[in-house]
Each structure stands twice: as C-alpha cells, then as structure tokens.
Amino acid sequence: xxxxxxxxxxxxxxxxxxxxxxxxxxxxxxxxxxxxxxxxxxxxxxxxxxxxxxxxxxxxxxxxxxxxxxxxxxxxxxxxxxxxxxxxxxxxxxxxxxxxxxxxxxxxxxxxxxxxxxxxxxxxxxxxxxxxxxxxxxx
Length: 139
Prior knowledge:
The protein is α+β, with helices and mostly antiparallel strands.
C-alpha cells in the first residue's frame, strides 16, 4: 500500500472516532506535575518535582520516586467543564473511583478531583480534594 493511502486511511479513522476518544488520545503521553494542592494546602515543589504521570491506552500510571500506581479513566469532553472519572487499579485506593473535571489546552492539563465525596467538583479548586497542573514532557 502506498504511504499516502495509508496516511489517508489513518486520518479518516481518526476523524471518525468519537470526540471523547480523540480527546483521550490527545491526553496520551508523559506529564510532569507543575503544581499540586490538596484540601487547600500547596504540595512542596521538592515533592511535585518527583512526580510523573503517564497516560496510555486508557490508563494513567502515576509515579513518585520508584513507587507507581495504575488507574483507568473515562472522560466526557462534551461537558463544561470536561469530566473525568479515575478508577484506581492498585495500591491503597484500589477499586475507588474519583470524580473530577479537567481542562486540556495545548501542552497543559489542569485536573481537579473530589477525594472524599462522590460529588464532582464544579470549579477548579482544592477545597474538597486535589487540584493539579501538569505539563506535557516533550519526547
């Protein structure tokens, strides 16, 4: 098959994907934590600088130092703000789902989750959970 034809087919498949699938694929990659606040308290930079987030194939792998935890996620990009549900797969929170909101602009991802509630946050605030700002790592 000619390379241009393969590229055209791939583009048609991508364009025909549901919006949430396209958005999820846009989130894929390596991310560093620029800032984090939990319940109104800013996490020290010496801790956030050790955090890494990888998003691939519908999974989130969060790493701090040498410890990693995996979660799956579902998004609804049509909501305003866009919604995300993160379900922990291992560690002390295994099986727990956190409901959140996110904002994805270019190479920056803002994520807010309510940690002790089934309610979804209505604004980007760490009042009832965690607010993170992540920056995509260039390959």
